[in-house]
Design a protein that fits this description.
The chain is mainly α. It contains four helices and no strands. It starts with a helix and ends in an 8-residue tail after the last helix.
Length: 75
């Protein structure tokens, strides 16, 4: 299973794990940079405030341990 980044890079002929700056993404996709910044901000916010909504990078499943309260999570 490929990540969105890997599929994006494959479609456009980049190395599958190549990273792009917001400025590069703006030039490639013609999406306004303020939209790209908003998406990035929402991603960081979800990770920091609602960790149970974030999928694992390995298989894109949700970690059941993260759905428990902080005091009940396995260490």
């Amino acid at each position: 299973m490929k990540t969105y980044k890997q599929r994006f890079n494959e479609e456009l002929g980049f190395d599958k794990d190549e990273e792009h700056s917001l400025k590069e993404l703006k030039e490639i996709t013609n999406i306004p940079i303020n939209f790209l910044k908003e998406v990035e901000k929402r991603g960081y916010g979800a990770y920091n405030t609602n960790l149970s909504s974030v999928r694992l990078k390995v298989d894109f499943s949700k970690n059941s341990d993260l759905r428990k309260g902080a005091s009940k999570r396995l260490s």
